[in-house]
Design brief:
Elements lengths: L1 H18 L56 E4 L18 E4 L7 E5 L5 E5 L10 E5 L10 H5 L1 H6 L4 E6 L9 H18 L11 E6 L3 H9 L1 H7 L17 E4 L21 E6 L4 H17 L4 E6 L30 H11 L11 H11 L4
Length: about 375
């Protein structure tokens, strides 16, 4: 008898729990009839959207040389030359850089001008992933601006996933009164020396440091691959803190290049230890730059230099060129409306891996081995 009573009583409790649900304290007790959950009540106003946080901005100025600021979180910024260096203009070195911000994306720097104290911004990779390989990025912009967004900052997370460290080069521009063939090229070579000098401190393999240049930036990368011996000879005096540190890049990326050292029929001597090169451009849609790319490739091929790879895509245009819809072609890692040219970076990683740059730090790369083999052979 008692057992039946308990069963009935429990069933009643269960029924009561089904038919009388508990009130959710997170919801209003009396919502406006007909208003779905999460939709503002008619007549109410949303709170204002807060201003963007952490937007990069140039640093302050005084009578001292300008201190460049990082454009990405965590960047270590080191100026290329010490104060008082003859490479710098003493009447302008204190001026602040000028940032051109993206109009649609808060905090994104599209380009920089007014660079009088050139620098590098270093972004290293987590130790468990780090291959020791380091790419110095020389952005394009026609020597009028430095397109550090699409041809610089965007590559930091991309290369990070492959264990590759990145360095953003802020070199001097023709726009600001400098000669790209001397001042900007010197900046590129000095950047290579500076990264190599700090290799141990930054957990970088000193034998896996190279430079990738885009358009006008390729006008720095290509000469860096050719003229490093002359630069080191001129800047190897005992008073130079980087004396004895080589500016030779271990690899170069020449991406839709401006004129290379072989343009207009020039035939400069090719050092036998010239580094391997990855060369890229669109074809008929970017014919002039493709011809400059081909000139570099042909000279290296004729000299028998190992591990030089070139991709000329049939469809594509140069960054900045107008498109039929009125917009302009962008560069770097952009998808380019899904055409094969938009995946060129995957071809670069294939080449990079093939030459051994993605192996564990300290292991000699195939690229270095092939250079040694080539040097052991009699000149052609």
């Amino acid at each position: 008898m008692s057992g039946q009573f308990i069963t009935v009583f429990c069933s009643a409790l269960l029924l009561s729990s089904v038919w009388v649900p508990a009130q959710d304290p997170a919801k209003p007790a009396n919502p406006t009839p007909g208003t779905p959950a999460g939709v503002p009540v008619p007549g109410a106003t949303l709170p204002p959207v807060p201003a963007p946080l952490g937007v990069p901005s140039p640093g302050p100025t005084n009578n001292l040389p300008y201190a460049p600021q990082p454009i990405l979180p965590g960047g270590v910024v080191v100026t290329l030359y010490p104060p008082g260096s003859p490479f710098l203009k003493p009447d302008r070195v204190h001026e602040a850089e000028q940032y051109n911000m993206n109009r649609a994306v808060p905090g994104r720097i599209s380009s920089i001008v007014n660079i009088h104290n050139p620098s590098i911004e270093v972004h290293t990779v987590d130790g468990s992933l780090n291959t020791g390989a380091t790419v110095i990025l020389a952005a394009g912009g026609g020597h009028n601006t430095l397109n550090v967004g699409t041809e610089g900052a965007d590559f930091v997370p991309y290369f990070f996933n492959y264990g590759v460290n990145t360095v953003l080069l802020r070199n001097r521009l023709r726009h600001d009164g400098y000669d790209p063939k001397t001042d900007a090229v010197n900046d590129a070579l000095q950047a290579i020396r500076l990264v190599r000098a700090h290799a141990k401190e930054w957990n970088i393999d000193p034998n896996r440091i190279g430079i990738m240049g885009f358009s006008a930036g390729a006008e720095l990368a290509a000469p860096a691959a050719m003229f490093f011996e002359d630069f080191d000879r001129k800047n190897g005096t005992p008073g130079d803190p980087l004396a004895g540190v080589s500016s030779r890049p271990d690899f170069v990326g020449i991406i839709y290049p401006g004129p290379t050292p072989f343009a207009r029929g020039a035939t400069p001597a090719i050092p036998r230890n010239v580094p391997p090169a990855f060369i890229l451009c669109a074809g008929s849609g970017d014919r002039v730059h493709a011809l400059w790319a081909t000139e570099y490739f042909s000279a290296m091929l004729q000299a028998g230099i190992p591990n030089v790879e070139m991709h000329i895509y049939g469809n594509g245009r140069h960054p900045g060129d107008p498109l039929p819809d009125g917009t302009r072609m962008t560069g770097g890692l952009t998808d380019r409306n899904g055409i094969p040219f938009g995946t060129w970076q995957d071809r670069y990683i294939d080449w990079f891996r093939d030459l051994g740059f993605l192996k564990k730090p300290g292991v000699e790369t195939k690229a270095a081995q092939d250079v040694k083999t080539f040097l052991s052979q009699p000149p052609r």
